[in-house]
UniProtKB/TrEMBL annotation:
Name of this protein: DUF3053 domain-containing protein
N-terminal signal peptide: 1-28
Alphabetized UniProt keyword annotations: Signal
Domain of life the protein comes from: Bacteria
Organism: Limnobaculum zhutongyuii
InterPro entries, per the entry: DUF3053
Length: 238
């Protein structure tokens, strides 16, 4: 008997719950145009305008003003945070160590440090691929009003696409640079007494060895120049 009464009671409350839900949804719907407008203006003025990538932390008032659109902003900030995390830690430590290898002799004698840095570069590449895919998948499922989508797409392109592309290019060039260094190191080690180190300079006793070294070094210099070009691009937006 009590079970029947309970079901009757629930049936009695159900229309009230439904009515409350309608009121709640209507309330959210009434604020949506203002929330959309506020979020759109914020993206345009604080994220899109200018060349630098800026992602200001939202204040409580802004979170309230943007409503559910704060989740869409979080997609941009989370991507940048994960990107920063991928490049920090072990890889940053290895890159610091590599700066001390300022001669060919030092690179030959510290081959394991170059190998370690290359392995960590490949690991970061894998992390980056995962971060970009996860972000892109979330972006693809977004349901934004058309007028806001136009603005958000620009913010996404600037923050996610641009940073992702530059990061990929940087890692690819680093990997190629490390491969060049390892190839040159192995070549120099194999020369034995046919070479002599004089500070940062390598002197060859045979022209054939010098020609081969210059060929490999040209590839290394090309990659290093490309890295410098990427670094300048990154400096312009960060």
């Amino acid at each position: 008997m009590s079970l029947v009464k309970q079901k009757t009671w629930v049936r009695f409350l159900a229309p009230l719950f439904a009515l409350g839900l309608v009121f709640q949804l209507a309330g959210c719907g009434d604020n949506e145009p203002e929330q959309r407008k506020a979020f759109s203006e914020f993206l345009q003025t604080q994220v899109i305008d200018g060349t630098k990538i800026r992602l200001p932390e939202l204040s409580k008032d802004q979170e309230k003003a943007f409503g559910n659109y704060t989740k869409d902003y979080a997609l941009l900030t989370n991507f940048t945070s994960q990107l920063d995390g991928a490049f920090s830690g072990a890889m940053q430590s290895s890159m610091t160590e590599l700066r001390t290898l300022n001669s060919m002799k030092a690179m030959v004698e510290n081959r394991e440090k170059v190998e370690k840095a290359q392995a960590e570069t490949k690991a970061v590449q894998a992390k980056l691929d995962g971060i970009v895919k996860q972000t892109a998948d979330s972006y693809a499922t977004m349901k934004l009003p058309e007028d806001l989508k136009v603005v958000y797409d620009k913010a996404y392109a600037k923050v996610v696409t641009q940073q992702g592309d530059l990061s990929r290019q940087t890692l690819t060039l680093l990997d190629s640079t490390f491969s060049d260094i390892l190839t040159i190191s192995d070549f120099l080690k194999a020369q034995g007494n046919k070479i002599e180190y004089n500070g940062p300079v390598v002197q060859f006793t045979e022209q054939a060895g010098l020609d081969k070294f210059n060929e490999m070094n040209a590839s290394l210099q090309k990659n290093q120049q490309a890295l410098m070009d990427i670094a300048r691009k990154i400096a312009q937006i960060m």
